[in-house]
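Re: the multi-chain job from yesterday

Posting the exact lines I submitted so nobody has to dig through the queue logs.
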Amino acid sequence: ELQLVESGGGLVKPGESLRLSCAASGFTFTQAWMAWVRQAPGKGLEWVGRIKSKTDGETIDYAAPVKGRFTISRDDSKNILYLQMNSLKTEDTALYYCTTDTRSWGQGTMVTVSS
Amino acid sequence: QTVVTQEPSLTVSPGGTVTLTCASSTGAVTSGYDPNWFQQKPGLAPRALIYGASNKYSWTPARFSGSLLGGKAALTLSGVQPEDEAEYYCLLKYGGVGVFGGGTKLTVL
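And the result, structure tokens for all chains:
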């Protein structure tokens, strides 16, 4: 059974950093394109970024609001996807979902940025 | 800044048919934008329904169908069930970067 389990969320102050992890199982992670999607409280979905598989060049694309501050990476030896978030802003407050390029979704981990 | 637009809300009667649309600020939506559709119910993670404009997943109910209609991506629900009441989001991809629409709240009444 496919599983995506996010962790690493929490409460941080503006300007601080946080790293989210997503443990994947039940599918061939090395071949999967993976994406992060977020949802602010009471708001709609926002695409954050996507990383392709190593065989597809491990190309990474980011949404404009996070480009230059967030970094997506993957550890294929551990089946883990990461989202490094730097220079966090209050508007980054959201539930962050790990997805298999939006096909399958985890339950999300909450990030709150507040002073 | 690219904007993807959906109807904010729609209402349909049980057993009826409704079409949700997804428009792009850049012009006509084509299959090249890889239109995807998602359903989200309160308190739950989204569930993918359609990819590539019209392709269904193994779990997508037969009453859901996707298409390209009049320069937009469209999601049609035929024979709507009460459990179809939810928020529906479309996703378009622009050179690898995804942009979600604002969502359509579908009420079954």
